[in-house]
Amino acid sequence: MHVIFEEDGHFKAGSILSETDATAQVESATGKRSKIKAANLLLRFAAPAPSEVMTEAEALAADLDADFLWEAAGTDEFGFEQLTQEYYGHTPRPAESVALLLKLHGSPIHFHKKG
Fold it and tell me: Which of 47, 19, 49 is nearest to 34 (CA)?
């Protein structure tokens, strides 16, 4: 199982080596192992490889319009998965979800994480 997680204010991808209810041991593509809190695990997926997802997501994020996303998001609090589903109109691929996550994170004037 692969994951996208937040570490030190950045989004990273890796593979789960072991997991408990509170944390997961994750190995990145570079071989670095990290202990990640469950709250920081943002997306789980089986395929493709984490490095492929991040590469494709960065390319897709460049094409997204933050102003349009802001208009489409509405005023209620939402998760990026919900907005991704609505934006793409189908069950999103991992790269599509991460692309939208990257765009939201890169637009702090429009979007911010509460709590």
Answer: 19
Q: CB burial class (10 A; 0-12, 13-18, 19+) of residue 3?
A: buried
d(Cα 69, Cα 84) in Å, to the nearest integer? 10
In SS3 terms, 2-66 reads as EEEEEECCEEEEEEEEEECCCEEEEEECCCCEEEEEHHHEEEEECCCCHHHHHHHHHHHHHHCCH
Kindly state the DSSP code that residue 76 receives in the 8-state scheme.
Answer: S
Taking only the tens place, the pLDDT of each residue in 16-35 is 999 999 999 999 988 999 99
C-alpha to C-alpha distance for 9 and 102, rounded to whole angstroms: 11
Specify whether the CB–CB gap between 38 and 23 falls below 8 A.
Answer: yes
Give me the mean pLDDT over the 33-46 stretch. 95
